[in-house]
Amino acid sequence: MSDEFIKVSTQEINEEIALIKKILESCNTDSDISKNSQDIEGHIHKIKGLAPMMGKPGIGEIAALNDTLLNHIMEGQNMEGILTILTESTVFMTNSMNGHEQNTNELKQKMETNYSKYLD
Q1: Is 36 in contact with 27 (CB distance < 8 Å)?
Q2: Helices 82-97 and 3-25 meet at what angle, rounded to 10?
Q3: CA distances (Å), 34 to each of 2, 82, 119, in order?
Q4: How many domains does the chain have?
């Protein structure tokens, strides 16, 4: 990938993460996530596509899992603890984008355990 692509992609992912954080700050319950799921999913979907192309596969994996969960929420599913998972995912993505290598497996395992019926 070109340096320019990496630069633009990095900026775009950081902007998407910031927008997700802003939405999450206005949420107090899992029900609030349901009300904002379409907006959050739009940002997550962009991250899901861009991150692997710029050498951030861990961010892409976490975004893909969240994208799947958010699609189920938009279809009317209620998911206990989704606010916490999205918050943890956003912290993970922020830290990864800031150069702090993160263990993808821990968060991925937590998501797969808590939401296995939605991720199969």
Answers
A1: yes
A2: 150
A3: 38, 9, 18
A4: 1
Q: Is 93 helix (H, G, I), strand (E, B) or coil?
A: helix
Confidence of residue 1 (pLDDT cuts 50, 70, 90): low
Cβ count within 10 A of residue 59: 26
Residue from 67, 72, 111, 70 nearest 88 by CA:
111
Q: Which residues have a Cβ under 8 Å from the Cβ of 25 and sit 6 or more positions away?
A: none
CATH number, domain of 99, equals 1.20.120
List the structure tokens of 49: 């596509």
Query: What are phi and psi for residue 62, nearest 5 degrees?
Result: -65, -40
Model pTM score: 0.94
Domain that holds residue 72: 3-119
Residues 66 and 46: beta-carbon distance below 8 Å: no
Lookup: tokens for 60: 């892409």
Q: What is the mean pLDDT of the chain?
A: 95
Tell me the pLDDT tens digit for each residue of 86-101. 999 999 999 999 988 7
- Residue type at 81? G
